[in-house]
């Protein structure tokens, strides 16, 4: 009965495997943005939180638009995203009970080092964007309804430009893939500073415009509604939410650096 | 090509360092894909054989559907499983989203049609060859299934390996239902996507080389077992 033995062995193997796939219970699922994950922020701050509270934080890094959808469906216990207007709407719609400022950084415009649209001496970000549009220089847009994409679209509107035409390329991808593509086709692109600094394949791309107040990029933490999703781990999620804005949490965020550069600036009230 | 140069060096360095994070990613990748292929085979082998032996109305429709599902885009399979397992979905109470189990379910859906469709084809050919002998033995069709499957085992090994190839190579489904969570649902293919998005191309390619080496190893083991068995049994 060699066949039967083989079968039982395989079955037992399968059970062992699935047994080891069982998970511990003291964890929360956090839906957040690619910029926070890709820059390495979570690797730096989550261990501190876990040590203090014993709560593991499992990060699902997606665009802000998708993070909202995950939150609406009740598939994450907590959200850390960067679209203040969208976050306030999320609270107003009853999906979250509280939204807190956690930290900020800024957006920058990067592009080919010879700067064909001449944006490096622009007076403002809207001026820079007008120059890109007027010279019809290739511009790579996320086009994925992420927080960065939403911010970029608001700035085109402020600049009085309708971003349409062969020069404006909507990629429908995350920040990293968009930077890879922009580097490949010598295009300008709009990125958060954290992803840019941590990005390792810039090729000829270089930072061309920064420093306008309109480029402010605020991150907020959302406490999801217990009423709407009673099954979520609200107690654990609340500890995370409060830790982020606590002195220790804010200090951990401030201490995170890439190449000696601080990438996120804590600003909880 | 400096990138590919670095990639080989990165791959080598990764293997030499026996990095524990890498090791757990490799183990999880193998666990998820092997379990998915095992479960899919349990269902698909008898299903494919039954489809080869029985004639019933709508049979051609089922065969066409199975063949078509071999081309199911992983991301669509992932999306369906996501909607099923999401808290707002019908099986939300199980709390399986963003777990390795969800990844196994998605891969079973991807692998099952391949194994079933190719098994159907193999068994049908074999049955045509042996129909007279089997009939003269007076075997019922359901009794024929184990006999035919056993007889076709070497061909079916390749069929199962094709299924394993599909499972270990896909990224679209596991990314959506697993969420690429560090230390929990991060596998080889989702790591490659992540490293690419960080612009760390040598690391991404290095991981690709390791994945390819692993898949080659598993295929080699299967091949050697098959050859040895063939020689023993004559």
UniProtKB/TrEMBL annotation, chain A:
The keyword Transmembrane helix belongs to this UniProt entry's keyword annotation: no
Does the entry feature the keyword Signal, yes or no?
Answer: yes
* PBP domain sequence ranges: 29-248
Q: Where is the signal peptide?
A: 1-23
Any idea which UniProt keywords this protein has? Signal
Indicate the transmembrane segments per the record. Answer: none
Q: Report what the protein is called.
A: Substrate-binding domain-containing protein
- Source organism of the structure: Vreelandella neptunia
């Amino acid at each position: 009965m060699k066949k039967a033995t083989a079968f039982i062995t395989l079955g037992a193997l399968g059970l062992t495997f699935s047994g080891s796939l069982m998970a511990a219970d003291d964890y929360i699922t956090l839906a957040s943005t690619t910029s926070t994950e890709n820059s390495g922020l979570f690797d730096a701050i989550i261990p501190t939180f876990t040590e203090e509270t014993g709560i593991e934080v499992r990060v699902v890094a997606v665009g802000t638009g998708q993070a909202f959808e995950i939150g609406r469906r009740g598939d994450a216990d907590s959200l850390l995203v960067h679209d203040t207007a969208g976050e306030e709407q999320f609270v107003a719609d009853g999906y979250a009970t509280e939204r807190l400022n956690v930290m900020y950084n800024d957006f920058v415009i990067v592009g080919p080092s010879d700067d064909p649209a001449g944006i490096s001496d622009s007076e403002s970000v809207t001026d820079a964007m007008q120059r890109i549009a007027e010279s019809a220089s290739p511009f790579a847009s996320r086009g994925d309804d992420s927080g960065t994409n939403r911010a970029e679209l608001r700035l085109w509107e402020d600049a009085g430009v309708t971003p349409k035409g062969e020069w404006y390329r909507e990629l429908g991808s995350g920040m990293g893939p968009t930077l890879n593509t922009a580097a490949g086709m010598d295009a300008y692109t709009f990125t958060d500073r954290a992803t840019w600094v941590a990005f390792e394949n810039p090729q000829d791309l270089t930072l061309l415009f920064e420093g306008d107040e309109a480029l402010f990029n605020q991150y907020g933490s959302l406490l999801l509604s217990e009423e709407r999703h009673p099954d979520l781990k609200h107690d654990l999620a609340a500890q995370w939410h409060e830790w982020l804005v606590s002195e220790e949490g804010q200090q951990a965020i401030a201490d995170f650096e890439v190449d000696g550069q601080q990438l996120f600036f804590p600003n909880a009230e | 090509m400096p990138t590919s140069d670095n990639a080989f060096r990165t791959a080598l360095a990764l293997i030499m360092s026996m990095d524990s994070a890498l090791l757990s990613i490799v183990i999880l990748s193998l666990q998820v894909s092997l379990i998915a292929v095992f479960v899919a085979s349990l269902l698909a082998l008898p299903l494919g054989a039954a489809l080869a032996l029985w004639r019933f109305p709508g049979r051609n429709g089922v065969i066409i559907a199975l063949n078509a599902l071999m081309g199911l885009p992983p991301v669509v399979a992932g999306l369906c499983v996501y909607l099923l397992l999401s808290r707002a979905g019908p099986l939300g109470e199980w709390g399986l989203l963003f777990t390795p189990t969800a990844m196994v379910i998605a891969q079973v859906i991807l692998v099952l049609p391949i194994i079933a469709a190719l098994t159907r084809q193999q068994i049908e050919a074999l049955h045509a060859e042996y129909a007279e002998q089997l009939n003269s033995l007076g075997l019922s069709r359901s009794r024929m299934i184990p006999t035919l499957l056993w007889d076709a085992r070497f061909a079916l090994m390749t069929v199962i390996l094709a299924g394993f190839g599909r499972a270990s190579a896909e990224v679209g489904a596991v990314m959506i239902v697993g969420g690429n969570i560090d230390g929990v649902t991060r596998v080889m293919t989702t790591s490659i996507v992540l490293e690419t998005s960080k612009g760390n191309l040598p690391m991404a390619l290095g991981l690709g080389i390791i994945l390819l080496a692993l898949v080659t190893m598993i295929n080699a083991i299967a091949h050697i077992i098959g050859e040895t068995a063939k020689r023993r049994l004559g």
